[in-house]
Amino acid sequence: SQAAGYPLSDEGVARTFEEVLTGLGVSNKGLLIKDASGLSKENRVTAIQIGQLLMKIRNDSRFASLIGGLPISGLTGTLRNRFIDTAPQAIGLVKAKTGTLNGTANLAGYVEAGDREYVFVIIADRLKTSSRAEKFARSTVDRILGKIAAPLLPVFPTQPAEVVIEEVATTA
Do 118 and 109 form a contact (C-beta atoms < 8 A)? Predict the structure, then answer.
């Protein structure tokens, strides 16, 4: 918030969020930032706002390090141990940020599907506050993304290539 010219406070962070979203063309209607840590259950952001933000920053060079630093399914960061048992076909194909508070299991980012990449936002909240319920929700999220994720496969020709066999003269 200080870099944006606002005080280093919850209010300064809230104003910074509003300014950044507006600057990127993302509506800040309904956005509510109660604390700078992101841990307050009173914070509010919509899936549409997150999705629009992810779309806007994807090809913006100013955010390249942010995108490059996202955890990768089954490989790095907070997604290192996810997808391995729940959706192994999605390993390496999901780049996303987790959002975890008691009673929530959220994930937002990008999923590769062949020659396309999709933005996704999944917010599962108001879960029963138990590790079992949260684990089930996370595995469900992983399986949903596993249905979308697909590696880029090479395109094979529909006609077999012409094979030319040359005879090589040998001297005996």
Answer: no
Amino acid in the structure at residue 100 = T
> What are the tokens at 29?
């209607």
CA distance 125 to 141: 12
Could you read off the pLDDT of 12-58 as tens digits, one per residue?
Answer: 888 888 998 999 999 989 888 888 777 788 888 999 999 999 999 99
Q: How far apart are CA 172 and CA 169, in angstroms?
A: 10
Q: Are 119 and 99 in contact (CB under 8 A)?
A: no
* Percent of the chain that is helix, strand, coil (3-state, to 5): 35, 15, 50
CA angle, corner 47, sides to 17 and 44, nearest 5?
Answer: 50
